[in-house]
Amino acid sequence: MRTIRVAMAQINPVVGDLKGNKEKILDFVGRAKKLNVDILTFPELAITGYPPEDLLLKPHFVRDNQEILSEIVKEVNKIAVIIGFVDSDENGDLYNAAALVHNRELRGIYRKILLPNYGVFDEKRYFKSGPHHLIFVLNGTTFGINICEDIWFADGPAKAQVKKGRAEIILNISSSPYHAGKGIKREEMLKERAVQNKAIICYNNLVGGQDELIFDGQGLIFDNKGNVVARGEAFKEDLIVADLNPEEVFTERLTDSDFYQEAEIDDLSIKKVVLSEIKSSGPKPLLPVKEVRRMGRTEEIYNALILGVRDYIGKNGFKKTVIGLSGGIDSALVAVIAVDALGRENVVCVSMPSVYSSTETQYDAKVLADNLGVEFITIPINDIYKGYIETLKIQFKGLKENIAEENIQARIRGNILMALSNKYGWLVLSTGNKSEMSVGYATLYGDMAGGLAVIKDVPKTYVYELANYRNATQGSYLIPESILKREPSAELKPDQKDTDTLPPYSVLDPILESYIEEDKSFDDILRMGYEKEIIEKVISMVDRSEYKRRQSPPGIKITPKAFGKDRRIPITNRYRDY
Amino acid sequence: MRTIRVAMAQINPVVGDLKGNKEKILDFVGRAKKLNVDILTFPELAITGYPPEDLLLKPHFVRDNQEILSEIVKEVNKIAVIIGFVDSDENGDLYNAAALVHNRELRGIYRKILLPNYGVFDEKRYFKSGPHHLIFVLNGTTFGINICEDIWFADGPAKAQVKKGRAEIILNISSSPYHAGKGIKREEMLKERAVQNKAIICYNNLVGGQDELIFDGQGLIFDNKGNVVARGEAFKEDLIVADLNPEEVFTERLTDSDFYQEAEIDDLSIKKVVLSEIKSSGPKPLLPVKEVRRMGRTEEIYNALILGVRDYIGKNGFKKTVIGLSGGIDSALVAVIAVDALGRENVVCVSMPSVYSSTETQYDAKVLADNLGVEFITIPINDIYKGYIETLKIQFKGLKENIAEENIQARIRGNILMALSNKYGWLVLSTGNKSEMSVGYATLYGDMAGGLAVIKDVPKTYVYELANYRNATQGSYLIPESILKREPSAELKPDQKDTDTLPPYSVLDPILESYIEEDKSFDDILRMGYEKEIIEKVISMVDRSEYKRRQSPPGIKITPKAFGKDRRIPITNRYRDY
Predict the structure, then answer these.
(1) CB B61 to CB A547 under 8 A?
(2) Full domain range(s) for residue B387
(3) How high is the ipTM of this complex?
């Protein structure tokens, strides 16, 4: 029986931190060697972090990343390592590549063949497609290497590597951005790819937050029958190790006469590298595989948001954050997430009541802050507000109160939070949810002000689910029940309710999902059974608030289509299909 | 002698306004028919406007654009017309296409072959590459059709259409975004293409502003020797008409034995369409070609900004704008541009002095407003500012004054301008220049607040050039001389000067151009002769202010690389090459 020990370093690099990423990579190489690992993979573009975006247009950035790879190569001995980096050719064309490193030598380079250029991806902006497949042999086993998108297509590189290259084990290195539900899709796809090719699949996925994107890790190893052999942690770094027996696989594959038919595969050539055998320093008892539980949907989203906050704050050199606490559900959830992500000593909550703030919401804000054990500051805005109204009395004379007066209040609060940020170096976390951001029910430079919009991609109906989930894990009303039960209000004028302006969230959210995430037409949504007038109103609010979203802080993507680079709608846009 | 009358409708469509664009197209068809034009072209994606961005992901948007094309086809008779639209195939794949319409029939479709996916372009996000060339014959003359990027490559579609398709006249339809200096490059390229292929080139370019992009028009017709036959207006709609004689061309081409060698051309097939002859209704005297002068560089930039303001305001349904006038050069230039773009009745200037505002700057602001004849409002911010300081006294107690106090003032001004916007429906024009935006020398939600950042892509050194240019065309100090001569200051603390924080603009701007537009490294810039400490400081300020730019309003692109979708740098980015 041939047994090969494969490990996947599920790491959290920082974009652009080439030296820091190198140290992390070498640290994981050391850990894997201590476990007698034969072959170790790192995620896609592990050296640069993913996505490096237009840093790739700087020739010195690419050179520096190659220099870092050379430095790593010199340190890698008695283990085969696959590392994602940026490769270039003599024409200056770039490739999203995987280096095969062994015995202090760079033995081969695989260049990604399928380049995603949709959704949040712009890979054709930077990279050319790879010209050939890469197969290598180690200790009698044949491996195929491919990168992220390559594995998602049944007739893609994995098939060619198995059928033409006779790979027994496919090593895929990925940086696959998270959204709720993607893990299940990914798992189904990988299972299908394993079964279809009768090959072992080792899928290593990046972990960490990078601006709006979360990479969830959750690496997976499937045997050739499509069973999960090992599973990596979600939203955490991990070293996933498994002892694999390709002989069993190979035997089964030989019995399948159809399997080697070479139809419907690309016409790219196969490069084959044979590595010298790795002798284990001693007897190698089989390692038990660590059991990792799959998270439920709400738990997963909650943990994605925590990672998003922690990495945005930490990777950008901040420590402390400040949040305007209104006593409503959105800011309450953001405060709880921030405390879970950063610790209560790094979260300051500020109540900024006006004449329209009810005693109930102010009380609830205080109770929540006490529950969380965070610093709580009260800064009333009435005097400043009066100052604005007095200063603007000539301009406002004879005109009815309108959105102007409401927005002045929200912008005073934005100004105060930013003043605290400027004075103390705290990062402002803004608290608007996706439903509000969609219809523009938020004040630009007011409640939208901040460095990170934590729940910008979380629809209001999810906000409640997440709050209830967190209270359930606490086993108590960490977020006070009255916050959960109170009818949503912006409290910017007397007796204001969200439903004065918006349909109920149970109606609004499905319409928004259809229109924004699924690109459905007015007619499609009408057929779902909603009222014509409501759909028209919602769609037109979404269309008209594109300019606001364009100036909003980055937010953590948790749905299939977030705002930001995921949805590129022109501001100047007269298209109406209603 | 065969003479064919070609016209190019250099139109300004609105993105998404399919019906409005149809009416404009039919209006130009009518005008061309009155001039006995044989063949008329419209720009790339004339039906949808360019770029439609993610509207293309809505299947109903694509269907509606095709329906509009069908409606246009029914109206086009006794003239051949080429119109840019979005084509789709049975798999749902999309193509950036040109429809060949004649005698109320859609006679052919050309699908763009070369798709730009760099800079501001994301065409591979939406479109597949076309599978074949399209050639058509009308009144004995052979035409090749191609689209924008197709013409930019010597070995691209134009060559194939001439060499394999024997096209005598190339009709290129473009939506080529403007930046200073591009017109000259484009003209050289087209001349080269004409000479190389010994073909007549009719290059029709879109005109208009679309969010951050300006399309400058400036359509061109070159004869087969590379001489300009006709030139379209810059930054204006135009109908460019020329009588062309392909026989002369053809004669010359036949004498060139090398010309029909088929080497180095793509392997795509040629589709050929023969149109029935168009009989002129009467004798057709040759039309004199309208003389259009090429603008100088500063004049061109100035006019680009005017078009950008006019179209952003108009296409988004606004009429009036409001500008905070500080008495400095930036807001002065923006006010003048706004008046030139919109008329003085649509520009309101607001002076918002604080204790740090000098009497000189306040006086200059008033003089400028008087020179322009615009409404001028003074709203002092002292009382509001005192309110903030009083309200924050506990939080600020014992701490030194810092950027917090400065930003509070800028944000009060932002709040006031937005309040006027909300009360009166005016759009706020923000006034920061590219040098400031680059190094983050601007207050987020303060002076950065607004719907359009008019000179966001204009470096400070250009700001002076544009101001001087405009004063020169006026023949007087429209912008007061004291504004031009005063040392720049934000006036947010006593005796503040920009040079307290920044190197002189004559040093700053070339460093910024090298770093931002040319992606030069620290070492490259050091070799240009600037001081190490200054370069380090500038680069680090640029890197650290990415988060501010991400929340800035759209600005009008006039340089080869603007902020926005032209430069996609991660916020979370630890790359440093110094």
Answers:
(1) no
(2) 297-498+545-550
(3) 0.95
